[in-house]
Design brief:
This protein is mostly helical. The chain is built from five helices and no strands. The two termini are 34 Å apart.
Length: 149
């Protein structure tokens, strides 16, 4: 029942327009929906929740910073016809650096998550995160307001 509610809420949310202001607002709404989704899946005790959520929010902030840097880099890579070979090497190296940074961040927080949650809940976290992304992409794909490609 909760999954249906979350899926319905995501669908209704994604039917809105996509102006810059709305995108920022949507990003926050998606994060709120993700928290609700993870809360449902993880079934945390009060003590676990008090230790986990600040840590998870810190992780998500750092992950968002890497994502923003990646998005900026992708924009530069997409405009590669005006970039010199030297700049191309720098961008390619930066791409790898960001991928490594993301992997290191996950490894760092994996160790931290294991300190505050049982390993079963850590695995459920990873699985639930993947499920949430899958559901979100499915909703985006099926959204009738998407422009034709």
């Amino acid at each position: 029942m909760k999954t249906i509610f979350i899926a319905t809420a995501l669908f209704l949310f994604l039917q809105n327009g996509y102006s810059q202001h709305q995108q920022c607002k949507h990003r926050e709404q998606i994060k709120a929906q993700k928290v609700a989704f993870l809360t449902n899946k993880l079934d945390l005790t009060v003590q676990e929740a008090q230790a986990f959520w600040p840590l998870y929010n810190e992780f998500e902030k750092k992950k968002d910073d890497i994502f923003d840097a990646q998005r900026n880099l992708y924009t530069q890579l997409d405009n590669n016809t005006t970039i010199s070979d030297k700049e191309m090497v720098e961008l390619a190296d930066k791409y790898i650096e960001l991928e490594v940074a993301e992997a290191k961040l996950l490894a760092e927080y994996h160790a931290k998550f294991k300190k505050v949650l049982p390993i079963r809940k850590v695995v459920i976290l990873y699985s639930s995160d993947r499920m949430f992304k899958k559901e979100l992409l499915k909703q985006l794909k099926n959204c009738p307001n998407q422009p034709d490609k």
